[in-house]
């Protein structure tokens, strides 16, 4: 609980430090800043989503293969729940970022999907 409060205060401090920069920024600079944030999140999100999916299936494997051991079964169930929660949070964050980019006018309207098979 104490580390959660410390993380929250650290995040609040960073956000408070950035507010004057964002507030005094010109529109072009703000648009550029938000676009950079979006690009960073777009690059990281698929990797984290893949890790969450792997965690879910690892938890499923633990749950199925150690069905006789109640402690291992509970551990597998907790890992599966954590994977699902992580996937949900990533989808929610993606929706929030999409909303913010459309609301601020930084949305380019194009989606670049790379086909890994080709």
Topology at a glance:
Blueprint: H1 2-24, H2 27-65, H3 70-104
Tell me briefly what this model is.
The chain has 118 residues and is mainly α.
* Helical content (DSSP H or I, runs of 4+): over 70%
**pLDDT under 50 segments (min length 5)?**
none
- What structural class do you assign from the helix and strand content? mainly alpha
Report Rg: 19 Å
Mean pLDDT: 77
Strand residue content? under 5%
- The dominant shape is elongated
Distance between the termini: 47 Å
The secondary-structure element order is HHH
**What's the number of extended β-strand segments?**
0
The largest β sheet comes out as:
none
Number of contiguous helices: 3
Record keyword descriptors for this entry.
82% helix; elongated; 118 residues
Describe this structure in words.
With 118 residues, the chain is mostly helical. Helices cover 82% and strands 0% of the residues. It contains three helices and no strands. The mean pLDDT is 77.
């Amino acid at each position: 609980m104490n580390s959660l409060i410390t993380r929250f205060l650290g995040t609040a401090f960073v956000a408070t430090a950035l507010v004057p920069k964002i507030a005094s920024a010109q529109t072009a600079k703000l648009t550029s800043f938000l676009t950079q944030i979006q690009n960073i999140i777009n690059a990281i999100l698929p990797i984290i989503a893949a890790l969450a999916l792997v965690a879910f299936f690892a938890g499923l494997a633990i749950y199925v293969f150690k069905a006789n051991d109640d402690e291992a079964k509970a551990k597998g169930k907790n890992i599966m729940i954590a994977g699902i929660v992580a996937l949900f949070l990533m989808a929610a964050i993606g929706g929030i970022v999409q909303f913010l980019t459309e609301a601020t006018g930084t949305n380019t309207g194009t989606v670049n999907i790379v086909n890994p098979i080709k």
